[in-house]
């Protein structure tokens, strides 16, 4: 507590940083803007909003100042700067009081050298994985939810009409939202399609004490209903249109630079569905360049499942022809989205980073994930999409052997045990499951065990 007050006082003696909502990619003579304490999700024209920081105030300090400030806070325990998100508070929500922040000290996820996969699968020596799924609720969604729920906490203290926070989601969003709401004691409402989600997806909001409404429709039906409900009732909408979440997510990009001692990688590959995260990465990198922490930004790759690939098709048309698609089922369930909310944000991010879009079939993503797992990486299917994209871009010669490349892992593999189990027992229709590793059934006597082992050891010595 004492620490918090001290930090607050220190900050208030430095120049005032601020941020506001503006229409996303507004033309330069637009004057539309909103205070962050307003409850608003869309611009007057119905478009997306963006959180815009007072860059002139931030620019009063040079890149060296910011680098050493961020470095001095990383991984420490001082509230709230020990969080990977709040260690960049001045760039995230500069005006929120530290006491309003709701945090699990998310972020600071490991960035590891994928040495064996790099060498054996893609012939690379500088391949890295940013492990964003090693997080409180098992996905990068925590980085955004700490910001959204902290701001809601502030709004409630300011007596704004927010009785609860709600979202429609089948998986990671509801897990993260319900956890942060539970931390702060804010009522959380989750709309879920009945019988369409697994126990693993259901268990987090239930355990976190959310009010879970299960209804006889699909995800889009739930989304439609929660939008109508939040228009009528003082329930704050936490869906992915909300631009606050991206402010937290962008810190993963800043963290990558920080972990490389402010060296800029050549490529960063991000799996994309609703397409907020790819923009968040762009925003984080771009801010570091604009404020002089680094002198360039990496080329971004957005990786999509071929079964839900509207951004890929848009890219292939030379950014001329966008059409929503009907998303087909994919093992990468968090990116099974045919009409992404943040399509314009993603196109902007890719065009401004000399970026590209690649896609992966179900077999490609499951094989890539299984291969990575067999090298100790235990990936989720979305990370499989990013790795499959990497494999294809290496084959095409787009990414070179010595390019410093980061694959963003978005969720923990343990959230997706069912698809892994199906793969390894070859229970997936029309899939060879080339890297399946099934357990060997053996009688419980020494002779049988020795036989099985001698087979195994012989194979091993040959390979
Ligand atoms: C939400 C999510 C994504 C997709 O992020 P977008 O911002 O919607 O593109 C990818 N992977 C996982 C595990 C997710 O939970």
TrEMBL record:
The keyword S-adenosyl-L-methionine appears for this protein: yes
Co-factor(s): pyridoxal 5'-phosphate
InterPro entries: Cys_Synth/Cystath_Beta-Synth, Thr_synthase-like, TrpB-like_PALP, TrpB-like_PALP_sf
Primary residence: plastid
UniProt record, GO biological process: threonine biosynthetic process
Domain of life: Eukaryota
Gene Ontology MF term list: threonine synthase activity
Record field: catalytic activity: O-phospho-L-homoserine + H2O = L-threonine + phosphate
Subcellular location(s) per record: Plastid, Chloroplast
Modified residues (N6-(pyridoxal phosphate)lysine): 141
Residue intervals passing through the bilayer: none
Any Pfam family the entry gives: PALP
This protein's UniProt keywords: Allosteric enzyme, Amino-acid biosynthesis, Chloroplast, Lyase, Plastid, Pyridoxal phosphate, S-adenosyl-L-methionine, Threonine biosynthesis, Transit peptide
Enzyme class, first EC level, given as a word: lyase
Known pathway: Amino-acid biosynthesis; L-threonine biosynthesis; L-threonine from L-aspartate: step 5/5
Tryptophan synthase beta chain-like PALP domain: residues covered: 102-410
Keyword Metal-binding: no
Record GO cellular component, one term: chloroplast
Assembly mode: Homodimer.
Purpose: Catalyzes the gamma-elimination of phosphate from L-phosphohomoserine and the beta-addition of water to produce L-threonine.
Matching NCBIfam families: thrC
Protein family: Belongs to the threonine synthase family.
Protein name: threonine synthase
UniProt source species: Lithospermum erythrorhizon
